[in-house]
Amino acid sequence: MATNLTLNVNGVNYSVAVADTSMPLLWVLRDMIGLTGTKYGCGIEVCGACTVLVNGQREHSCVFDVGSAVGKQIVTVEGLAKDAQGQKAQAAWIANQVPQCGYCQPGMLTATVGAMKAGHHGSEIMSEVDHICVCGTYSRIAKATQAL
Amino acid sequence: MDRLASSSDSVSINRRAFLGGGAAALVVPFTVSFSARAQAAGSTLGAYLKIDSTNVVTVYVGSTEMGQGIMTGLAQLVAEELMLSWSQVRGEQALASSASPNPYGNPLFGMQLTGGSTSMRGWYLPMRKAAAIAREQLLAAARQLYGGAWTLKAGGQVTNGPVAYPFSALVATAVTIPPLTSPTLATTSTVIGKKMPRLDIPAKVNGSAIFGIDVRVPGMVYASVVHCPTLTGKVASMPTTAAGALALVNLGNAVGVVANDTWTAMKIARSLASKIAWTQPANMATLDSALVQANGRALAQATNVAPKIYETTGAVDPAIVLASTRKVDALYQTPFLAHACMEVLNCTASVTATSCEVWAPTQGQQFCIPTIQAITGLAPAQITVHTTFLGGGLGRKIEQDYIAQAVTIAKAVGKPVKLTWSREQDFKNDKYRPTAAMRVQLGGLDSNGAITAMLYRNVSTSINGQKGNPEDTGAVAGAVGLPYPIVNRRVEFVANPCDVPLGYWRSVGESYNIFAIESAIDELALALGRDPMALRKSLLVADARARGVVDAVDKMSGWSTSTAPSGSARGVAFMKGFGSYIALVVQVSRKTDGTIKVDKAFCAIDCGVAINPDSIEAQVQGGIIHGLTAALWGEAVIVNGAPKPGNFSNYRVAKARDVPQMSVAVIASTAAPGGVGETGVPCVAPAIANAWAKLSGQRIRTLPFYSGATMSGL
């Protein structure tokens, strides 16, 4: 009864057999495809840790049905380095030594790149990326995004 | 009572607290061990270093990297001693060890456990010594192989002038050289004291860092869990199967659900809650935060209890002195708190008849092997425990509950299992930060400018008490050994009996006692008509390091030279704790809805030798944010045995919009390293309360400021 789907993630096609097409994309990425960079935080689209880009749009993968992702371009933190904006954001994160525990940072970075792709710059990015970081890296994220 | 004589911080608490009973703290002398289990293929020098064929040097870190930067910090010590290039250094978590003494146990207290901001304090000299021993072995190997005199050369090499060899060419011989017992430590500061880039950050930016929740083992299945909705409740009866589940496993206080993916396991676990019959605890009605806190307030005032006395100074009973000089008599209260680590509890386990392998985000390696032995009956040598990165630890990941569950499930199903709790289960089955009520009575100043008397009573739910130990000096950490001159003092502890599961929370006893002490010092200043900054400066005049941080925040904030902007007020707090000194000034204003906004924070820390000033700044910034969350919103309400926090939606934490403009000064010091990870937290609540009192005239003595806050609301 499994449904076979093809997902394009970071430019690679993956075939997955899901028992339920309403399974959130988050868990297909993590448990079935093995791309574990995208994180589970709250499961109710509050914290932002699970953010991925779907056709360039920021989406909470914890509530995004995998069935709706078919035929679309999915980008996760593992794929950010494939374009110039992603590389720029990652370099800013390293230059500003942003992460502490690092758990929320894939979502922060992916959302930052999504905001850049939506035309946001500098301090606008922080208001777009309204995620939770319990370590409190916000001021360093603000610094890192200033130059983006 | 072992800690009373010397210490006002939390170092010596841990071992007793975790072991329970009345055993005195055992400090295991540090030894560099060649007998420790080899961590991986490659040539290891002692227990801490591996040098591979490409001359990459790996440092095995016994403390847990959970964002505080200890992996980088310890690697810096090694790099200094061995003149390594930063690009050739790696860090790796050591396996849990069952050896005694444990080579990966923190040398301060002998246990492989990360807490109390002790990692750098414990490892600073021992890790340097281990690296220096390796350096001498490498040089001796060069002499043995090639003759003549050799010295170190930058980049992990030895040279005799014309010729240089990389360490990798020498290590096979070096391991055969007997280690020196007292090597000379490097006198350079090439790496120590420098803002070296963190070793773990690149992987945390490109998604390749493996947290516990990311572990994947061939053939593994996925599990989640549903606990009794009432704290301490047990499974009475449960279904044996569920549609879509590979197995259901009785875990005593919970049911484990095994499935082909985490989402399915979580979904089934959620649906099972109503199908499991639970045995409710007999004292369910007492598992209630309002009831426990009311009891705490009563005990703080009660005269018919016999408190434990954890500090006395002076010739006269402070109660007698206070009768004529009392200036402050205030009751402060702090709530239960959840840990709310970004990474939910999880653990991966594989169990066979002859082995058990576990991958866990743990800060409590010392306890993992005994936990696993109790479930599997295996010998320590058959058990391997890997520590992954932690998506926050905050004290919660010292506990063993989730590790025991994963091992139990893996044993039951005969396959490797990754257990992942849902966020709701994580909030509702926490080991909550104790709730405390603190009555502080202070006398005025004598002719020497000293405070005449302090009578301090902490009433709190006791972590030790739940482990069967009636002594709980950790409950008064932050209230004893105060650097303020107080002539006659008595610090009392009264346990508030309570079966709500409790655990350590970042900055432990200091997280509530410093709120009480630093609020009370402020109230004393107001009662005396003194400026709170000026009073602290005069009280701390004899303590250069204390004055150093207070003077620094005075200057940084402009406290003594300028008035706060219109509509704003400043508040100050100070702490000597975790082996460090810290002072904080916050500047606050009112938002349009009348609630507080913390606009600026000025912080100075003297943590002795600052191994990595950038990491220290990051930890202090994060500590301020963590303290702000706790002060303004942090509260785990528990009603009739049921915790109310269920997700971040109803457990408000600081977001970007809440963050003040922060300045952090790291004071240059040659003193022994102090703690950093927790040090930034305790001053935040009192500094905010002191500023708010000045701004509004309203003294907040009960935290949080805003009970019932939600993420989308206040």
How is this structure best described in words?
The complex is a heterodimer of chains A (148) and B (714). By secondary structure, chain A is an alpha+beta fold. Chain A has helices at residues 25-33, 84-95, 105-117, 123-128, 138-146, and strands at 3-9, 12-18, 51-54, 57-60, 73-75. A five-stranded mixed beta sheet of chain A has the order 2-1-5-3-4, with helices on both faces. In chain A, helix 2 crosses helix 3 and helix 2 (84-95) packs across helix 5 (138-146). In chain B, the strands form seven sheets. A seven-stranded mixed beta sheet of chain B has the order 10-11-8-18-15-16-17. Chain B is globular. At the A-B interface, helix 1, helix 2, helix 3 and helix 5 of A face helix 5, helix 6 and helix 16 of B.
Protein traits:
heterodimer; A: 148 residues; alpha+beta; five-stranded mixed β-sheet; B: 714 residues; Aldehyde Oxidoreductase, domain 4; seven-stranded mixed β-sheet; disordered N terminus
List the helices and strands and how they pair.
The complex is a heterodimer of chains A (148) and B (714).
Chain A: E1 3-9, E2 12-18, H1 25-33, E3 51-54, E4 57-60, E5 73-75, H2 84-95, H3 105-117, H4 123-128, H5 138-146
Parallel strand pairs in A: 1-5
Antiparallel strand pairs in A: 1-2, 3-4, 3-5
Chain B: H1 13-19, E1 43-45, E2 49-51, E3 57-61, H2 70-82, E4 89-93, H3 119-146, E5 151-153, E6 157-159, E7 164-166, H4 171-174, H5 201-206, E8 221-227, E9 234-237, E10 247-250, E11 254-259, H6 262-272, E12 277-279, H7 289-301, E13 308-313, H8 318-325, E14 326-334, E15 346-351, E16 356-360, H9 365-376, E17 383-387, H10 401-413, E18 417-420, H11 423-428, E19 436-443, E20 451-460, H12 463-466, E21 486-495, H13 510-528, H14 532-539, H15 544-557, E22 568-577, E23 580-590, E24 596-606, H16 613-632, E25 638-639, E26 642-643, E27 661-666, H17 684-696
Parallel strand pairs in B: 3-4, 8-18, 16-17, 20-21, 24-27
Antiparallel strand pairs in B: 1-2, 2-3, 5-6, 6-7, 8-11, 9-12, 10-11, 13-21, 14-19, 15-16, 15-18, 19-20, 22-23, 23-24, 25-26
